[in-house]
Structure formats: structure tokens, C-alpha cells
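INTERNAL TRANSFER SHEET
From: sequence group
To: structure group
Subject: Cell division ATP-binding protein FtsE

Please process the attached sequence and return the structure record in the designated field. Keep the field labels unchanged so the import script can parse them.
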Amino acid sequence: MIDLMGVSKTYKNGVHAIKNMTLHIDEGEFVYIIGPTGSGKSTFIKLIDGEEIPDSGTVIVAGTDVGKLKFKKVPYYRRNIGVVFQDYRLLPNLTIFENIAFALEAIGQDKATIRKRVREVLELVSLEEKARSFPRELSGGQQQRATIGRAIANKPKVLVADEPTGNLDPEKSNEIMRLLEKINEEEKTTVVMVTHDSTLVDEFKKRTIALEEGYVVADMMKGGYIKHE
Ligand SMILES: Nc1ncnc2c1ncn2[C@@H]1O[C@H](COP(=O)(O)OP(=O)(O)OP(=O)(O)O)[C@@H](O)[C@H]1O
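Return from structure group:
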């Protein structure tokens, strides 16, 4: 599903954020990306969602060579990728229902299909009761669930989450993890999650890729050590 082959990314200021990275993530996997600040985690996510393009090497996601995408094609490519950030980024003047529907309207789905899918998503993220509420009327955990609902509304092949629990207390973080697991299992979405939260990584065991200074320094399958470069 995701293949990086010899990928390097240097920013204009000369920072080498990703160095000669090669890794494979299978369809349906749930993978953590961990590592100290500045190790390249967000850059890795940006290379997957097409926000950044590698200087060398190849990034293939769901059959698309992301680095070779024409500028105009990027928005179409992005429909395959759901993105969730630490801050919720919901549209403040739209209800939760409308926020989720908006993602589907933007890709031109018809009204009946949108209504059906939004109801389905609200149920999946346990926010049926909040359909008519505005983001400011929801708790942080609920807002993050709504954001996740919006990100997966059009059934993307991959969900990338950059510190999705970064602003939440442990109980709410666990709730988000259970939701991401449910999406991974029920919707068969490949999940790539950047996190600093070692408690979560210990509790919800998944393949864990550790980065340091732009390199993959460990790749551990559910706690078992499989690779060190
Ligand atoms: N747009 C940019 N322009 C220039 N340098 C950047 C840019 N984005 C990131 N960097 C640099 O690239 C390196 C990797 O950054 P990145 O954001 O990928 O790390 P990170 O592991 O996600 O860090 P954090 O845990 O602090 O979010 C850092 O040295 C950072 O300062």
C-alpha cells in the first residue's frame, strides 16, 4: 500500500529531514511512527499525503507515484488519503453533520449518498447525538472524533494521523485509539499514526517504526524487534 524506496527530502534551508528511507507498509496495517522532535515524522506524513515531494527516491501510495504527480492531480490523489492532525481543524460555522458532509460535497457526491454516508460515519464515531451541534459545543475528544469521521467519510485507502491524541487526556486518547482500531478493522483502512505517547504505544501494540535524524532506526512488529539499520 505504501512503498518508499531510497527516499530523501531536504528542505530549502538545507535541513535533511528524511535520508535514504526504504520501507513498506502493507494494505490494512496499523503503524506507529515514533521518534524525537525533528526526526522527520511529519515530513514522512507529508511525503505520503503529497504535501511534499522527495528530492530523490520513490514514494508509491496505493499504486500512485506521489513524487511524479502533476500539480493539478494532487487534489484527486488526496481523496485516497484521510488526514488528521493534533488540532481539530473543523469548520467553526458548520454543524458536525455539515463538517462531515462538506468533505463529500467537495468531491461531488449526490445529496442522498452524502446523507447516508454521514449518518453511517456519525454512528462509527459515536456522535449521532451531536449531528446538529457546532464544533465549539463539543469536548476535545468529541471534536477529534468528528475530525476522524470527516477524514474517513469518503473511505480513503490510507488514514494518516499526526499526533491525533496530542491534546487529549489518557482516557480520551484511549477512546481515539479504539476508534482508529475500529476504522482499521471495519473499514479496512491502512492507518499510519505519528505519536509521542509511549503509554499508548505500549498499551495498543502495533508495528512501530522509529525515526532518528531522518533515518529509520528500528522497525518493530507489535513489540518484537525485526530490523535495525
Ligand atoms: N517546511 C520546512 N522548511 C524547513 N525545514 C523544515 C520544514 N519542515 C520541517 N523542517 C525541518 O525538518 C526536520 C524534520 O522535521 P519534522 O517536522 O518532519 O520532524 P518531526 O519528527 O515531525 O518533529 P516534531 O516531533 O517536533 O513534530 C526538522 O529539523 C525541521 O526543523
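Handover comment: The CA atoms of residues 160 and 192 lie 5 Å apart. The chain has seven helices and eleven strands.
Transfer complete.
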